[in-house]
């Protein structure tokens, strides 16, 4: 198998730090480099569509909120790890761009729902589709069996660090969290 830049990285640091485990360093560094590449690709994809990362995150959250693509500002803020007050400006901007709209809550006239518009949904899906294509391109280097094995191995590693709330999910279509 041919070398990659991580092999050269590991060789260098193994000389500098003799107690370094080259296998651990190689695995962790490769995971970090893949994540870095995917983040850069995601940023470029989102930017090419005239969005900022935080705008895309809001559209993505709403896109996962069942068939109506609606949530309260509080739900959006909680999913994005923001204060409810901080989310207002973000919603205002997306609303001015026609990507979301505010609707009165059918159950409480003091509340409002934020809904993804058709333009917002199209933009979110297009950017997500491009990102998905890049992820598929990278994983195409592995056979289906190798992808399944990798998924299982990564699941084992996740179980070491997993905890409630680590990876939040928007409410499901039944309205629950």
Describe this protein's structure.
The protein has 177 residues and is mainly α. It folds into 2 domains: 1-48; 52-141, Winged helix-like DNA-binding domain superfamily/Winged helix DNA-binding domain (Arc Repressor Mutant, subunit A). The chain has 7 helices and 3 strands. It has helices spanning 5-16, 22-48, 53-63, 73-80, 84-96, 118-139, 144-161, and strands at 70-71, 100-104, 112-116. The chain has a 3-stranded antiparallel sheet with strand order 1-3-2. Helix 1 crosses helix 2 (22-48), helix 2 (22-48) packs antiparallel against helix 6 and helix 3 crosses helix 6 (118-139). It is elongated.
The unreliable regions are: 172-177
- Helices and strands, in order, run as HHHEHHEEHH
Residue share in helix: 55-70%
Number of domains: 2
Please state the oligomeric state of the protein chains shown.
single chain
Strand content: 5-15%
Q: How many alpha or pi helices?
A: 7
CATH homolog superfamily of the largest domain: Winged helix-like DNA-binding domain superfamily/Winged helix DNA-binding domain
**What is the CATH class name of the largest domain?**
Mainly Alpha
CATH topology-level fold name of the largest domain = Arc Repressor Mutant, subunit A
Main sheet: which strands, in order across? 1-3-2
């Amino acid at each position: 198998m041919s070398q990659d830049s991580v092999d050269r990285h590991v060789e260098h640091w193994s000389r500098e730090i003799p107690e370094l485990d080259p296998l651990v360093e190689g695995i962790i560094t490769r995971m970090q480099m893949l994540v870095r590449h995917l983040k850069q690709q995601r940023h470029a994809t989102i930017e090419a569509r005239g969005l900022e990362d935080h705008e895309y995150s809001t559209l993505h959250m709403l896109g996962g909120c069942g068939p109506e693509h609606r949530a309260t500002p509080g739900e959006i803020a909680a999913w994005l790890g923001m204060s409810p007050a901080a989310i207002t400006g973000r919603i205002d901007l997306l609303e001015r761009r026609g990507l979301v709209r505010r609707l009165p809550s059918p159950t409480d006239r003091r509340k409002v729902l934020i809904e993804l518009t058709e333009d917002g949904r199209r933009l979110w899906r297009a950017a997500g589709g491009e990102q998905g294509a890049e992820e598929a391109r990278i994983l195409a280097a592995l056979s289906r069996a190798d992808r399944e094995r990798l998924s299982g191995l990564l699941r084992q590693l996740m179980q070491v660090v997993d905890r409630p709330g680590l990876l939040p999910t928007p409410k499901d279509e039944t309205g629950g969290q």
